[in-house]
Amino acid sequence: MNGRVMAAGGQPGGRPSRQINVVLRNQEPQILAKDEAISVQAAKSVTKHTHFQEIQGELEQLVGLENIKELVFEIYAFLQIAQMRSEAGLLSGAHVYHMVFKGNPGTGKTTVARIVAKMFQKMGVLSKGHLIEVERADLVGEYIGHTAQKTRDLVKKALGGILFIDEAYSLARGGEKDFGKEAIDTLVKSMEDHKNQFILILAGYSEEIDFFLQTNPGLPSRFPIQVEFPDYTIDQLIQISEMMAKERDYILMPQTILKLKQHLLQEKNDSLHAFSNARYVRNAIERSIRHQAVRLLEQYSDGSPGKLELMTIRTEDLKFERK
Ligand SMILES: Nc1ncnc2c1ncn2[C@@H]1O[C@H](COP(=O)(O)OP(=O)(O)OP(=O)(O)O)[C@@H](O)[C@H]1O
Ligand SMILES: [Mg+2]
């Protein structure tokens, strides 16, 4: 083994924490010097570790999503060990990575899919690591044969990366005569024809996805990785808002945070299924940034506000649309 992966801060005998320290043995130069073959191998492994640290860094930026962070590490560990097994002459059969992402809107599905695509590219599983995000209208055509063609074209575009289908169950909604079925059949065929050349991710509401998979018996076994994206708690949503403001060089006043918190509590209670989680707070923050701009222009009609004022989002900037 050329590198050592440690789960730091793990409980003795318990689950390791998601904070992973990658300790590279290339810090021990005598190993690299010993043999050219080993040195090439070590260099490859070092690069992969560095790449993984990059991915890990991106994941750490995301609030919550502990199950997803663990899954990504699991895949990384599997890929590393598979490589070592193959070098040791052991069997390392092809693995199926098609996935189902279940969750309400704005829970981070697309964001995670992008990071996962990048990881597979860096780990050498996918050649390009891009993400093609589509929905029913992109796949389904208007006449017989059109759908198969449209779907095949999109699969072609996704080769070397991930094909991400949002609200995948809408393909099954029209029943037997609907062209959606043709899209499903074409996708299943493409998964066979282009094995290991692309990864398919089906995304959408949990219950709808489950129902869709149940009613298409051939499908569940083709998607061995199923990931739940839970709704964010109010505290997580506040953390996400503060992060989003910070990323844009803004500060939320404590009273602004309180106002947002109260509003989110209300909104989450009222809208249940339709509440769009992190996307909702992103829109709220972006709207408050625009309102702050208008307020500042009015307030400082001659002269310009100071740096702190330019950064501060006050309670009056945070306005919510009436339902
Ligand atoms: N855990 C998180 N931490 C920080 N930002 C997040 C997190 N989850 C989502 N976001 C942000 O929220 C926005 C919406 O996320 P994303 O588009 O990934 O959600 P989604 O689940 O794909 O939604 P939809 O089902 O509506 O397509 C993005 O701007 C994303 O960066
Ligand atoms: Mg999305």
Describe this structure in words.
The chain is an alpha/beta fold and 323 residues long. The protein has 3 domains: 1-92, no CATH class; 94-230, Rossmann fold (3-Layer(aba) Sandwich), CATH 3.40.50; 234-317, Helicase, Ruva Protein, domain 3 (Orthogonal Bundle). Helix content is 52%, strand content 12%. The protein contains 12 helices and 9 strands. A 5-stranded parallel sheet has the order 4-5-6-3-7. It has a two-stranded antiparallel sheet with strand order 1-2. Strands 8-9 form a two-stranded parallel ribbon. Helix 6 (146-158) runs parallel beside helix 7, helix 9 (234-247) packs across helix 10 (254-271) and helix 9 (234-247) crosses helix 11 (277-299). The longest helix is centred in the N-terminal third of the chain and has 25 residues, at 36-60. It is globular, with a radius of gyration of 24 Å. Residues 1-32 have low confidence and may be disordered. Magnesium ion (MG) is lined by residues 109-110, 166. The site of adenosine-5'-triphosphate has 18 residues, from helix 4, helix 9 and helix 11.
Short description:
By secondary structure, the chain is α/β, with parallel strands linked by helices. 52% of the residues lie in helices and 12% in strands.
Give the topology, please.
Elements: E1 3-7, E2 20-24, H1 29-34, H2 36-60, H3 66-87, E3 99-103, H4 109-122, E4 131-134, H5 136-139, H6 146-158, E5 162-166, H7 179-193, E6 199-204, H8 206-215, E7 225-229, H9 234-247, E8 251-252, H10 254-271, H11 277-299, H12 307-311, E9 312-313
Parallel strand pairs: 3-6, 3-7, 4-5, 5-6, 8-9
Antiparallel strand pairs: 1-2
Helix pairs in contact: 2-3, 2-4, 6-7, 9-10, 9-11
This protein binds adenosine-5'-triphosphate and magnesium ion (MG).
Magnesium ion is lined by residues 109-110, 166.
